[in-house]
Design a protein that fits this description.
Blueprint lengths: L7 H9 L4 E5 L18 H6 L2 E2 L12 H17 L3 E5 L3 H9 L9 H14 L1 H11 L1 H5 L6 H14 L3 H5 L14 E4 L3 H17 L2 H12 L13 H8 L5 H25 L6 E4 L5 H12 L5
Parallel strand pairs: 1-2, 1-3, 4-5
């Protein structure tokens, strides 16, 4: 686990050279097909050298939930262990880790008809007004959401309509916490936030030079996505889409993309600090001998064949 640009993928591939692992992606953006550059998705050579799971599952216009991730991840992990291999989970979507480790509440499945009705109403009234409607139905959930957070407001209203109960009430019910695996949790944490920010800036420039703008343009043409499409809310994609829509300049797009990625890293680190039930062994992702440290740790803690 770790924030964006902490080197998770690189370390995972080094681990794969020494242990019989198959990688399970814990990344809410890499599940999308066609979104390769901006998600730092493994290239063809990497995918060919080590089996990867939960990558390229849906189109950019489809939705993928934490509940679906939990089911898919557990299924992949069972299949991997049946082959005598070790599931190596890697990614920065902390909500997915929490869903996997701690289980999820019994919320109703998504209903496209209800969501379309909510979206149509929001187009007429605006999301701040929809937020007020949610406040009347579920004040606890509404209080923790921003009036412009369309995705979460939509889901909260959908749950209210389908379950005839507030989402906050359902979230308070016991979770399905069945997790039949023993894990060793490793967190890559930067010892210096400014250095991580420099990495983020450099990586975003690499993505732009690799053709991120063309990638988003191609997705927009093929799938007719817009700012409300869930996939286009991913950092980098949202800002490039704004540039393609002539809402910001190229320079502004770059600065906004870097700033948004830094904010993402900050949220990821906050999540990591809050995962007290799943304490992680922390390593400085900026250390020169990081790979050696991680491999030595694994060797000392696990009797695995290298």
């Amino acid at each position: 686990m770790g924030p964006t640009a902490s080197g998770k993928s690189r370390i995972a591939m080094e681990v794969a050279k020494h242990y019989p692992v198959e990688i399970v992606s814990v990344d809410s953006a890499q599940v999308c097909r066609h979104m390769d550059i901006g998600t730092a998705k493994p290239d063809a050579a990497t995918l060919a050298s080590v089996p990867h799971h939960l990558i390229n599952l849906i189109d950019p216009t489809e939705r993928y939930s934490a509940a679906r991730f939990r089911n898919d991840a557990l299924s992949a992990m069972h299949q991997i262990t049946e082959r005598g291999k070790i599931p190596l989970l890697i990614g920065g979507t902390m909500l997915y880790y929490r869903a996997l480790f701690d289980g999820i509440s019994a919320l109703p499945a998504a209903d496209e008809t209800v969501r379309m009705q909510i979206d149509e109403e929001a187009k007429k009234l605006g999301w701040p007004t929809m937020h007020m409607k949610l406040y009347k139905l579920d004040p606890i959930t509404a209080a923790r959401l921003q009036p412009t957070d369309s995705q979460r407001i939509q889901r909260a209203l959908e749950v209210c309509y389908l379950a005839n109960k507030p989402m906050s009430a359902l979230l308070g019910q016991p979770r399905n916490t069945d997790f039949p695996f023993q894990t060793t949790n490793i967190a890559l944490i930067p010892s210096d936030r400014k250095t991580l920010h420099h990495r983020i800036e450099k990586r975003f420039d690499v993505m732009l030079n690799a053709g991120l703008t063309n990638e988003v343009q191609s997705i927009r043409e093929q799938f007719n996505v817009n700012a409300d499409t869930t996939a286009m809310r991913c950092v980098g994609y949202r800002q490039v889409l704004m540039f393609l829509n002539n809402e910001v300049t190229q320079s502004e797009m770059r600065e906004m993309g870097i700033a948004a990625t830094r904010q993402l890293a900050k949220r990821q680190l906050t999540w990591l600090r809050g995962m007290k039930n799943n304490e992680a062994n922390e390593f400085d992702c900026l250390a020169d001998n990081l790979t050696k440290q991680v491999l030595a740790f694994l060797k000392s803690h696990h009797k695995l064949n290298t």
